[in-house]
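User: Show me an example of a complex going from sequences to structure tokens.

Assistant: Sure. Here are the input components:
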Amino acid sequence: MAGPTITTVSEMLALDEPLLLDSGQSLAGVQIAYEAYGSLSPAKDNAVLLCHATSGDQHVASPHPITGKPGWWDRMVGPGKPIDTTRFYVICANVLGGCMGSTGPSSPAPDGQPYAMRFPVITIRDMVRAQVALLEALGIEKLYAVVGGSMGGMQGLSLAANWPHIAERVLCIGGTATMPAQNIAFQEVGRQAIMADPDWQGGSYYNTGKTPAAGLGVARMAAHITYLSESSLTEKFGRRLQNRNSKTFGFEADFQIESYLRHQGLTFSERFDANSYLYITRAMSYFDLAEENLSKGGGGRLADAFADTNARFCVVSFDSDWLYPTELSRGLAHALNAAGAPVSFVELSAPFGHDSFLLEVPELDRVVAGFLGQ
Amino acid sequence: MAGPTITTVSEMLALDEPLLLDSGQSLAGVQIAYEAYGSLSPAKDNAVLLCHATSGDQHVASPHPITGKPGWWDRMVGPGKPIDTTRFYVICANVLGGCMGSTGPSSPAPDGQPYAMRFPVITIRDMVRAQVALLEALGIEKLYAVVGGSMGGMQGLSLAANWPHIAERVLCIGGTATMPAQNIAFQEVGRQAIMADPDWQGGSYYNTGKTPAAGLGVARMAAHITYLSESSLTEKFGRRLQNRNSKTFGFEADFQIESYLRHQGLTFSERFDANSYLYITRAMSYFDLAEENLSKGGGGRLADAFADTNARFCVVSFDSDWLYPTELSRGLAHALNAAGAPVSFVELSAPFGHDSFLLEVPELDRVVAGFLGQ
């Protein structure tokens, strides 16, 4: 694992109490790794919780400790930026189940050995449980806002549905309240790719000197295609060849898109734990706020999930996002309307597909700044 | 490999002459396995060549010898069916590079051992070369029509572009004349999944008692998602659980869609050779009739590829096909128009995505019957 030496060290919080999970299991000794930017006001009324996506982490606006690259939302978070750290106290925690410091399958179990597949299967709500515990430890009772894209948006929705008095504003970008079948399918392919790799070894690879890098790489390649739009792939790569003038009539990466995907798979395997990928995608496929409401004894409509919230919502989709298409966001906005929640919904035009929320989309900046300015 | 015992035996043709391939290599001893239905008329003017898709074979309207299932276009080909075998002599050959009898990577090389990765990389045009050699051996100089869906459609286009005087009609369903970047990307994921499987063993697995079934299964799972529409997945599976009342909080196939995909991967590995999958998807990613025309010294426009053909064309797309979307078929129809070829183009409404050409779409039956009736 080559790379620059980075000194970014996240804050660490050890939870005093075990987390009681949706599975019924209890998880003791949970640690949460987080980054914070800006200052908490004396009234503690300026906290913004950012929730990261599947392959993200707490390094929102600080260099990534493995890759050395800028934080994943560096363009959005900082002094004078749409999420203005001179005004807001911005917190982002590595999700429960993750691999960047928060407790996950690579963490030591009580017996001192890594949990591996002994780690309990978690849900999006469990991830949010850990976030809520973090807020409590920081003495933060109210959030000015919770903000997230993709799986981050789902966490924001779960917070609003299950802890309806914490967040005053919920900004959900390219998310959904119910994971649809096609996404479950792609998530399953990723997991099967990992578990088909003999180096996965039933998940117990941590002390073997091997990791299921090939399987995780394939999982990442498949997922990465779904994050981009067809037109952006055509524009960025088309059928252009990679450092050659003609096809080789072989199985090397003749095309730029092939070389790019292989690189994506390789670098992802260098920074991400395969078991974390299993658990996080499992949590996503389980995510369905309507069903969750039903199992809590509610009416089971999506709107019922938001019956108790006083938050105002902003729901954003991108016209080129085929993985979490506008239809999902529109359905969410309708449900919020039906629940009587104030909601603004906007479909932005951006060429980059699902990844648009991470990329240069000035209109998103204005939406974010505007919603947080209210 | 469990399954019923089927007695379907395809016709076999051994080519006298070596095939000179696009790579510059020469392939001797080529065998072509094919099925034929109906009778060739004395004037030899009623032959219809069917070309199969990526995972298809010559068993169009006869039971598959491994799975025992009906042929892949049983609903379309037969007496009184849209491709009427009381009227037409219908031929379908396993493609060069395939694994159902035609010469491919699993076939013996001159040294008696399987070619494995010594098999030359082939193109769609090379597949058509083999088909043309078959027609010559059968004494067929003219085709009433060439018909194919997906990769089958590409072969039809290649035939029209490179042997412009053979086919009088070309019916291309859900195809393209140029493989776009997103499809190249998905094809690469499939190959990487296979090559990441240690049982692949650099392709030389034939005498080891092992096959890269897991890798090929993952490849198939990923591909299969792309063959279906999001709405058909939602309708067919949604978030329904598989033989259980609640989630297991584990990594079993809790959801029907997960179980279905695993089954697809498993059964595909039982009937298809992984190396054939590598070679066939490679041929597809290389496919670009415009570029091919340029390399032949033509003008390099897609229309130029069809400059010499006298065929009439019918181009069909499906509105729910996001893998080979209507845009590709429309571009093809425009190019054919620009080449002065008679072409009818129709986008059919069907819910099943790319796989619509294989499924119950009565309007497709009418289009096929109508085009062949002209």
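The lines above are the inputs; the final block is the predicted structure for all two components together. The mean pLDDT of chain B is 96.
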